[in-house]
Design brief:
It comes from Sphingomonas trueperi. This protein is of the alpha+beta class. It contains 2 helices and 3 strands. It has one domain: Herpes Virus-1 (2-Layer Sandwich). A 3-stranded antiparallel β-sheet has the order 2-1-3. The longest helix is centred in the middle third of the chain and has 6 residues. The N and C termini lie far apart (about 25 Å).
Length: about 70
């Protein structure tokens, strides 16, 4: 199950689990659309492809809440 990290690792912008606009690699490194675009949709950590993260909504989000651990290093 995806961790659904709450922020962009590069710029720190909030990325709600129930909204689009987040991009992840196979290790779940998480970036906003603007940062992913700036990085040519390649993860700077592993070199993997960044893809749209699916949203988690409704009952699924209530039963399996998103992570609250922020990854942005500032």
């Amino acid at each position: 199950m995806l961790e659904m990290r709450p922020d962009c690792e590069r710029c720190g912008v909030d990325l709600p689990a129930d909204a689009g606009g987040a991009f992840i690699c196979s290790f779940e490194c998480t970036f906003c659309a603007e940062c992913a675009d700036d990085m040519d949709e390649r993860c700077p950590n592993c070199g993997g492809e960044l893809l749209d993260r699916p949203a988690r909504v409704g009952d699924a989000l209530r039963r399996h809440p998103a992570s609250t651990e922020r990854k942005h290093k500032g």
